[in-house]
Amino acid sequence: MFTETQPIGRKGTPVKPDSADPGLPPSFAVIPLDEDHLSMVKPDSKSADIYRYLRDFVKRPPAQEAPGLVLQQTFESMKTDLSSGFQRIESIAKASNVLTQSLPILDDAARKQIERLRKARC
Questions:
Q1: What is the CA 38 to chain-centroid distance, rounded?
Q2: Is the pTM of this model over 0.85?
């Protein structure tokens, strides 16, 4: 990814270096170019470096580009889903006072069946 270093007249640089960083892995580091914003968004010709880089970037299959990024995004999504799921469970449990009650993990019938299985092993 690129960022411009030259201002456009009095307007300065429309995209500041910190906002040009999309937050991708280090292999996609933001590269400052000695260009202004207009020459970057509308290259002079198809032989311009930025045009060729972006053309090649778009032609690459996504799987070859950043397989780790897809996994990271999937992991982050799953983590968010799990976190919101746990929050829902906690709120339901608090509402029904389940967390404040001490409930036996096994009821008597289950306990008796486990005891029979243990005896049958011996």
A1: 31
A2: no
Phi and psi, residue 30, nearest 5°: -75, 125
In the chain, what percentage of residues exceed pLDDT 70?
77
Q: How far is CA 65 from CA 15, 18, 57, 71, 78, in A?
A: 25, 23, 8, 12, 22
**Residues 82, 80: Cα–Cα separation, whole Å:** 5
Q: Among all chains, which residue has been given the structure tokens 């992991």?
A: 75
End-to-end CA distance of the chain: 68
CB atoms near residue 59 (< 10 Å): 7
Q: State the pLDDT at residue 20.
A: 74
Phi, psi (rounded to 5 degrees) for 3: -140, 145
Burial classification of residue 69, based on how many CB atoms lie within 10 Å of its CB (0-12 exposed, 13-18 middle, 19 or more buried): middle
Give the pLDDT mean for 102-122: 75
**Rg for the chain (alpha carbons), in Å?**
29
